[in-house]
Specification:
This protein is an alpha+beta fold and 133 residues long. It has 4 helices and 6 strands. Strands 2-1-6-5-4-3 form a 6-stranded mixed β-sheet. Strand 5 and strand 6 form a beta hairpin.
Length: 133
């Protein structure tokens, strides 16, 4: 398997295990100890908290990778997310509403682990679905 293919498989595996499989422990298996997200050094512990917050807020959260590209040590994933808002999220109590939003992540791979990620999430679209009258 080429490095590019292996890097893409690692990213697929992260979303499949951590999000769709609801396995926060995937963070420990697939991310570097000093993992950085959008310039913030979270480490594995911080990223476990972030993943758990999403899973707690959307108990049926599902990730679908729509487009996956790799170059060098970077993998870009454009994704669709769906779920039901069953727990508090960003200060909004559970609404029971179904949501759908997109994101694009660029992830840097180092020695077979995800070391860094930059995310662009349609937060306005998500929050609009949670707060619309």
């Amino acid at each position: 398997m080429t490095d590019l293919a292996a890097n893409k498989d690692l990213v697929r595996r992260f979303y499949a295990e951590a999000i769709n499989g609801r396995d926060v422990g995937a963070v420990d298996r697939l991310l570097t100890e000093d993992f950085t997200h959008d310039g913030e050094q979270r480490g594995r512990a911080g990223q476990r908290v972030a993943v758990a917050a999403f899973l707690d807020a959307f108990d049926d959260l599902h990730n679908e990778i729509l487009l996956l590209l790799a170059e060098g040590d970077l993998v870009a994933a454009h994704q669709r997310w769906t779920g039901t808002h069953t727990g508090p999220f960003a200060g909004v109590p559970a609404t029971g509403r179904a949501v759908e939003f997109t994101s694009t992540a660029v992830l840097r791979i180092v020695d077979g682990f995800i070391a860094e990620a930059w995310d662009q999430v349609d937060v306005a679209g998500l929050m609009g679905q949670l707060t619309e009258a």
